[in-house]
Amino acid sequence: MPNTAPAFRDLDFNEIASMLRAHTYGRLAFTFRDRVDIEPIHYVYDDGWLVCRTAPGTKLTQLAHHPWVAFEIDEVRGLFEWRSVVVKGTVYFVEPDGSADLDEKAQAAIEALRRLVPGALSEDDPTPGRNIIFRVHIDEMHGRAAIPAPDGA
């Protein structure tokens, strides 16, 4: 009897990194006390980090107290034809304060964001209120894929 079941598999490191580089939008999940939230956010994958920016608000207060997050991106073509990546990591805020090390990190983060939005954090910024930069250090990342059963199986 032919196999009619879909196949599931883990993605390897290169497939995960490729997906993270190809996408610019995902969902950031975070907790505070007994509450779990998930919000959409744009990002840039940059050598083991996700670089993001946001506007001041509740999310920042929560992340300042509990910097551990999960982040997910997906590619879905059908019920059993998809790929998904989940990242778990720690949030670090990028705040230029005059120290050479931090200024380097801030500049690198701004350059990464400008690959996504060329006018980011400049007078040409299309979303000037999103002026808080943070990076998510990728502590763990996992990917899964579903492959549909072969036609005619």
Short description:
With 153 residues, the chain is an alpha+beta fold. The protein is built from 3 helices and 7 strands; from the N terminus they run βαβββαββαβ.
Give structural attributes.
single chain; 153 residues; alpha+beta; Pnp Oxidase, Chain A; 6-stranded antiparallel beta barrel; 23% helix; 46% strand; globular
Q: Can you say what the CATH homologous superfamily is?
A: Electron Transport, Fmn-binding Protein, Chain A
Radius of gyration: 18 Å
Largest β-sheet summary = 6 strands, antiparallel, barrel
What integer is the average pLDDT?
88
Domain module count = 1
CATH-scheme architecture:
Roll
DSSP summary: helix tally: 3
Structural class: alpha+beta
Shape, principal axes of CA atoms: globular
Widest sheet, order of strands: 2-3-4-7-6-5
Walk me through the topology.
Blueprint: E1 7-10, H1 13-22, E2 25-32, E3 35-45, E4 49-54, H2 58-65, E5 68-78, E6 81-94, H3 100-116, E7 132-147
Antiparallel strand pairs: 1-7, 2-3, 2-5, 3-4, 4-7, 5-6, 6-7
